[in-house]
Structures are given as structure tokens and as C-alpha cells.
Task: structure prediction
Amino acid sequence: MSWFKKLIPSRIRTEGGSRRSVPEGLWTKCPKCEAVLYRAELERSVEVCPKCGHHIRQSARRRLNQFLDPEPRTEIGGELMPIDVLKFKDSKRYRDRLVQAQRKTGENDALVVMGGRVKGVPLVAAAFEFGFMGGSMGAVVGERFVRGINEAVDKKIPLVCFAASGGARMQEALISLMQLAKTSAALARLNECGLPFVSVLTDPTMGGVSASLGMLGDVNIAEPNALIGFAGPRVIEQTVKETLPEGFQRSEFLLEHGAIDMIVDRREMRDRIASLLTMLTQQPAP
Amino acid sequence: MNLDFLEFEQPIAELQAKIEELRRVGSNAELNLGDEIEDLQQKSDDLTRSIFSKLDAWQISQLARHPQRPYTLDYVERLFTDFQELHGDRAFAEDAAIVAGLARLDGRPVVVIGHQKGRNTREKVERSFGMPRPEGYRKALRIMRMAEKFRLPILTFIDTPGAYPGIGAEERGQSEAIARNLFEMARLKTPIICTVIGEGGSGGALAIGVGDSVLMLQYSTYSVISPEGCASILWKSAKKAADAAEAMGITSGRLKALELIEQVIEEPLGGAHRDVDETARRVKRVLLSELKRLYRLDPESLIARRYDRLMAYGKYREGEE
Result:
């Protein structure tokens, strides 16, 4: 333990065990460069490490909070609750997993959708909650996404989605697979109405979410160094029986291969998206 | 063990072996064993009926992947005339894991698209076990757009373990290729009928599976992940595949009950591979009746109806917290 760490009282000292999440407290540590950061400062930099630029995974609500103007905001589809149609049980019951995820995240499913504004530009914004069963897409996620689109179509405003998901939710089996078709069909409708969809892919966006709404943006944006792809790296490694190239399935790799339009630093996300949306809708600059 | 039969079919295999034996003896000697053979055949049929009346999800997924199960081209041969295969995505490559082309169904031109697995080792490799790369999906989309242009209905046949998981496939946008098909198929102004004939493996299956009517052969499966994959993630052991198959409800009967598919096409006794001609006849009958129904709709109501079907997927509770 460094001399500096010893100075921090043990109750707020962060240990290696919680590398992924950002623990509450006065001080926190960047999971990438391990720099000890002042919590308030980290929040000011929208959870991007000021030392190394690492984009720390964010909860859906925190992300929307930082992305949207403070007023006005209305949540869409928040009243929808998941049900266990299949009575699915593996080592644990799906119902118990849901309750556990709800307690852990304070959300009742893995997508939060809000109507609001970005730098005065009205829009519908959706964000995946990765902490809720890996941001997996089931019936509620699909339906909320569609209701967000319906709102966008009604009000003739654009849609922005921040994806962070392991893919379809296995515990909802084929119902979850059908959410790929459902969300993509709704995006086709948005498209026909001539309304923009900006898809922001954050770490990680894999499987069914990548292979549906994730890749269907008029503009596809990725945060730096996010893992984005269809098949998981381990599955591919087992199939092709060779080690994967450096940086495989990272944002920079996707940009190089033409899958995304740009990589945007989270600290510039509001400005860049507001600018894109006003141009796509022929409005004056924000 | 007789490899033409699955493990749970071995009692049937034993009876069949006996019948074969009797036939051989009967043709050599001047004995009349006809009655005895008929008797045993009756027994074998009864046994098959009894075994097949209570198959579990795991047994059904073995049937869906049976090495002798008819593949897309086996149906193409039996259902259609004048089949002309069309190749390539016009951008990068031809992908033999998906076959596509024009054909006539009872004289009427249609577009046919399906996953194709290989029969022998060489063909299996050539067709990468029916696992398409992005080019396969892009070829399918190109030909579906052509179908729309010339107002031809689209008939798809689904039979894949899933989209190919490889470095090149990722580099060339596997996710985008699948997503684009889902997006476009929702709006194509021509009837689309999708039939799951074997394995409906996840996004790789759905990418040619969005349509006006989704049919499943009785012993085919359709799921978000393979039973083995699900088991290794949720049970931490691929050996629990049978449990995963049961839990996910991947069989035609359960999916019909969940209203995720339109219709189940019953298979001949012992499964599609026991009588391919009869299976094809049944598939054809259903396709013709579905097409007749869909032809009555003008393009706008067809698409509106398809959209409503897609939006109805998935149940949830509406209430306060």
C-alpha cells in the first residue's frame, strides 16, 4: 500500500476487488490507470478519468442526467415491469434475479427512456443499464424502446440511444430474440418518418443489441475503447483457435473497418450530438 | 449402436435390425415370414409412436440437428421447379451457408432463401456448417430487394446453429448485416413466409426470419442461444444443455403456445428424415395456403399487419412500482 493510500481512512479506501464499479465515497480509483481521483472531480469530467481518459462505465440514469438539459424531462415507459412468462430457472430463478437486479440498480429493467432536450434540441434519449443483468434486452427493454420511438414519431423529434449490453436476455429465451426484430422494425418506422436516430455504442455493446438497434443509427458513434461486436471474443477464440489481434472489437477497430462514423469523447458528447441533430433536422446551430 | 438412430431411438433401431434379419432369412430360404415381419413392423411403429409422443426439448433439438435431416436444398428440389440459384453479395464474396434464388411454386415465380448445411465433410466446411458470414446476409437482402421490385413473394428456410463467429465476420460487420436485414425485412412490400426446418439459431436465424408468417416443422427448434451455450453461461457447464433446452422452451409446441410463431407443420412418424417426400408435401401444402391468404392483402395492409405482429412480441406488466 502506498503512503498516500495509508492516509485515506479505511472506510473510504477502495480496493482492487471493486475495479469495475465506481464506489461511493470521497475518493475513487480509475480502473484503468489506477490513479486516485477526487470523486467530485470525476463527476465533473462525466466519469472520464482526467488522468488517462478512460471512460468508466456509467449507470443509465447518471448518463441521461449528464446528457440531457436539466429541464424538461419526462420518463417514458417507466411503469412497465418485467414478468417471467417462461418460469425460467437455472441455478437461480429468473424472478429472483430480477428482484436482485432491481435492488442493485434501483431500476426495474435494463433500459431508461426519457423525453427531453440537449442544448435546447428536443429529442427522446434512451440508455441501457448495464448493471441490470448485463443490460440484457428482454420484453420490457424492447417495449420501452418502441414507446420512445412512438414518442419521437408523435412529436417529430430525433432519437438517441446509448447502448451498453451483453445482448439478448437468455432468461426470456425466444421472446428476447424477437425484441431484435421488434426494435429494428420500430426504427424502420422512425426512418420512414424522416427522423434521425443517433446510436451511441458504449462499453460493452455485444450480441443481439449490437445486431439490431445498435448498428442501425443514421450516425453510429462509439465511446473510446468500447468493446463492440456480435460474437463474444471468447467464443471466437474457441472457434478459430487462434489468439485475437490486438484491439479486436474495440471502437478504434470498428472505425478502421468502417462500422462506425466516429469516436466521441464523453466530455464532448452533448455538443457533438446537438450539432449533428440540428444539421440533420435543418435547424440553426445550437 | 446404429448411427442412423439417435440414442433415445435405439430400441426402435433394435426392432428394425430384427426386421432386416428376418427379411434376409426370408429371401434366402423358402420360408414365408411375411406375417412375422408385418407384426414386428407394427410393433416398431407403435414403439416409435410411443417414444415420439413424449420427446423432451433436448431430444427434439437432437432431431433438429439430425445428420440425415432434410436441408433447404432437399426442400427446394421437392417443392419447386425451375430453381435458378443466384450468388454473391455484389460487394465482397459469395457465402454458401445461404442459398438463394428464383423458382416456381406450382407455376408461380417466387424467391427462395435458406441456410444450407453440408452433407459430407467437404461440403460442411464449404458451407461452414450453415453459419453465414455478413456476405450471406447481404446476398439474402440483395435478393429480397429484387423480390420486392418484381413483386415476388419470399420464402425463407431457417436452419443454422447461428451466425459465424470469426475474426473476418466481425471485421466486415456481422452485427450490421444482421441488423440491416431485420430493419429492411420489416418494411419489404412483398409477402414473406419463414419456415424453420431444423435449427433456428439466434440472430443468425432471425436475420432471414422476419416476415408475415413464421412456421416451424414439428421437430425443429428456435432459440436465442444454443442449449449448450446457455448451459455454459447460466449453469457454468455445457453438460446441462438438456436442462437449458427445457428451460428456454425452444420447441415448436411451446413457441406456438407463446404466440411467437404462426403454425406448426407436423412431421411424419419418426421425424422429417424418415420420409422427406411426405414432409415436403406437407410444407408445400401449408406454404400454398399461407401465400393464398397473403396475396389477398395489398402492400400497405401487409406491412401494417406485419408491423403489428412484431410489436406484439413480448409480455410485460403495466403498473406502478
